Structures are given as structure tokens and as C-alpha cells.
Amino acid sequence: MNALIPVTKIELELTEACNLQCKFCYNSCEPTYCEKAYDIIDRLESDGVFELVLTGGEPSNHPNFFNILNYACKHIPRVMVQSNGVNFGTMENFERLISEPVACVNFSLHGPKSVHERLTQVSGSFDLTVQAIKWCIGAKIRVASNLVLTAWNSDRDNLEKLMSLHSELGMREMTVTRFIPCGCGQEALELKVSRLKFIEALDNLVNISKKTDVQFLLANAMPRCELEERHESLCNRCSFGVDKFYIDIKGNILTCGMSRIKLGNVFNGGLLSELALSEIRDSYLERNHIPLECRQCKYLDICGGGCRAVSVANCNKIDGYDSLEL
Ligand SMILES: C[S@@+](CC[C@H](N)C(=O)[O-])C[C@H]1O[C@@H](n2cnc3c(N)ncnc32)[C@H](O)[C@@H]1O
User: Fold this and answer.
1) Ranges of H-type helices in the chain
2) What global pTM score does this model have?
3) pLDDT digits (tens, 9 = 90+) for 287-300
4) Cα 258 to middle of ligand 1, angstroms
5) Ligand 1 center–CA 32 separation, angstroms
């Protein structure tokens, strides 16, 4: 049995349904909804969870989204919303959103209009997302964006247009996620980015960031050995499975939304006791999820062996090698 290590962050999936059809999406996009969100939040509160991200699918597509958001904000110190923003591009929904003390709204934005909508497969989605961002910034709500880097949006021109848009909107924070082929995105192999293109995109992001004053961070762990020395400061480790977890619509506790390895269910004994009983969590704490070839590497402390969801997508096991070519 592992020690009771505090949980710092939970991503809670309110629904798998979505109003967009992003080609890369890791989720199933099935119309399934979390029916016991209040119970889950109660359990997270009693287990001392500090940060909760409401996600999906599209979380605002849950029929009780605003009530759940209100409840979450009353019970968890820091609540964030991860959204495509489309539903908040209408005034009524936007006003309900900002009536809650949300710490940050993270909007998915994948390029200029034509590129964004090619990926989301819904025309008109870009304008609504941008409208929601403008209104949030006007209302002084902290906003950030997430770009999923794919073969369709990773060239310099698209990155330049996207970061300039951020700058014009006054949105200074951006995360960049590597496309991981899982869920609906499993079939979208044409979206994969080669290692060389990825490195080129990083160089472009760094240069454009300096010109536009938009800060970007890499959202997933990157294997340091696959990048160049100049990118070392961009590498980070992932602590999903250790102190951050994902909870799906049925209350299952998963390592993360993309790797989806089940550790327990909050309705059995609560989050912390389920984690304490989980052999997989033990294995994470003992660092057995780190690939063998990475354990002696001089870069281990920098990247922790990269992203485990890539390993699961590639070879269906948690401790496989993370390569940018996968
Ligand atoms: C699944 S979405 C759910 C929340 C909301 N619908 C949205 O678009 O932000 C969560 C985040 O994961 C990103 N994402 C989805 N599928 C991905 C994949 N296969 N690889 C990397 N990131 C992905 C999305 O773009 C989004 O920023």
C-alpha cells in the first residue's frame, strides 16, 4: 500500500459529448454524461483536492454545467474550465460563466479560422471561440489557450497568425500539446508531426513568442533526448499518475485523459483510499512507469522519460519509450 501523497489536481470529465468534432480528439465524443458530479466534488473536497479542471468532451454541453460549476466553486479552492469556448460565445452563457469565481478558462484554439475549423470540422466555431475569449478578457477573467500541434497547423505561417491573434486579443498564455493518436484521433494519422517538423515548430514558437510577447509552455512531457539542447528549458516532466489524475464520467480514477489507465473509482472508497490501494499508483511512485532505457539517463530529472500517454498509444503499455516519431 502506498503512502497518502496529496493530490494537487484533478481533471473531471463532465461528458464525452461535444459540439465540435476535432479530428485529433482523444475522447470518444459519445453522448454520455456524468450523473453524479456533485457526489464526486464532495469526495474530492473531503480528500483535500486543491485544483479542479472541468473538462470533457465539452464540459459546457453537460445539461447541468452551470449548476455543477457553481457547486465546484463553492467546494474546491481553485476551479478551472477547459473548453472549446463555442457555448460561451453567446452572451447568456458567457454571463453565467463569469458569475462564478473561475480561476481560469483555458480555450482550445488551433490556428487561424480556416485551419481551426478544418480541425474542429464545424464552421463558425472559430468566431464563437474568439468572441468568448474577447468577452472573458474584457471581464478580466484569466484566460489561456491550448493548441494541439498537428501536421495541419504547425508551419510558421499558421503559428505566426495564431500568436499574433493572441497578442491582439491580449491573451498572453498559451500551452502547446503534442498530438497523441488515441480515442477518435486514433485514425487521424495524417495529423502526426515528424520529429524534424516538431523541432522546426518549436524554433518558430520560440521566435514568434519573443516578437509577440505571448508565452508558451509545452503541455505534455517531452523526451529531452529527442529534442535539441536549445529546447531543454521547454522540457518538463509529467506528474499525472503521481499527484494529478483524471476522473471520467463514471467516477473512474484514471492516470490521465489520454492514457486512461484505471486506478480505482471514487465511489468505492473515495479518491485517496482508492489511490492508496492501487498497485498501479504504487508502481508510479516507485517510478516503474519510466522506460528502462530512461532510468539511467542523464536527462531523467528533466523529462522523466517523456509522455506515458504516447507510450500507451504506441505500444499499449505504460513504460514504453516515448519517441517524437510515433
Ligand atoms: C478533449 S478536450 C476537452 C475540453 C474541450 N472540449 C476543449 O476543446 O478544450 C481537452 C484538451 O485536449 C486537447 N486534445 C484533444 N485530443 C487530443 C489529442 N489526441 N492529443 C493532444 N491533445 C488533445 C484538446 O484540444 C483540448 O485542448
Assistant:
1) 37-46, 65-75, 91-98, 113-120, 125-138, 156-169, 195-212, 266-269, 271-277, 279-285, 300-303, 308-315
2) 0.97
3) 999 999 999 999 99
4) 9
5) 17
